[in-house]
Amino acid sequence: MPSFDVVSEVDQQEIRNAVDQASREVANRFDFKNTNSSLELDDTSITLRTSTEDRLNALRQVLEEKLVKRKVSLKVLDHGKVEEAAGATVRQEIGLVAGISSEKAKELNKFIKGLGVKGVQSQTQGDQLRVTSKKRDDLQTVMAALREGDFGIPLQFNNFRD
User: Fold this and answer.
1) Rg (CA), the chain
2) What Pfam families does this protein map onto (predicted)?
3) Domain edge (last residue) among 73, 96, 119
4) In this structure, how many other beta carbons lie within 10 angstroms of the beta carbon of residue 23?
5) 32-42: buried (b, 16+ CB within 10 Å) or exposed (e) per residue?
6) Is the pTM for the entire model greater than 0.90?
7) What average pLDDT score do residues 93-106 get?
8) Both ends of the chain: CA-CA distance in Å?
9) Which residue range forms the structural domain that includes residue 65?
10) Both 22 and 91 in a single domain?
11) What CA–CA distances, in Å, run from 156 to 32, 128, 137, 138?
């Protein structure tokens, strides 16, 4: 029976490359001189630090440009609130969203059922969704509908089996 998996994954290498490129650009740009601006990446988040909120917005824009150039969806970014930090600086924590939460999985299941495509079934398996059908064309219809929908997370389709 044909099937495919709906997943939401983050390419850590591409994010690391984008953060490195953004850090290099910030180090060389004149408008960031003497602002102590920095970007730090760990496993689940990116931390932006700089002197003012305006510089923070510019820093965020540089990071987003680099992510877009590397074909990383901006939906993986979960912007935290801007916090005052020590030494009259500001910082912002940007979380990296990976995996499909149980609430999103329910929303996706409901969406797939609401399409009304006959014979299509979907079930949650951990942090991914498995969609099965007897007809391959029905699966491609579901894929197209999921691509058009906006669920707040980046969706990828893998493990397509005939």
Assistant:
1) 20
2) YajQ
3) 96
4) 19
5) beebebbbebe
6) no
7) 89
8) 6
9) 12-96
10) yes
11) 36, 10, 18, 17
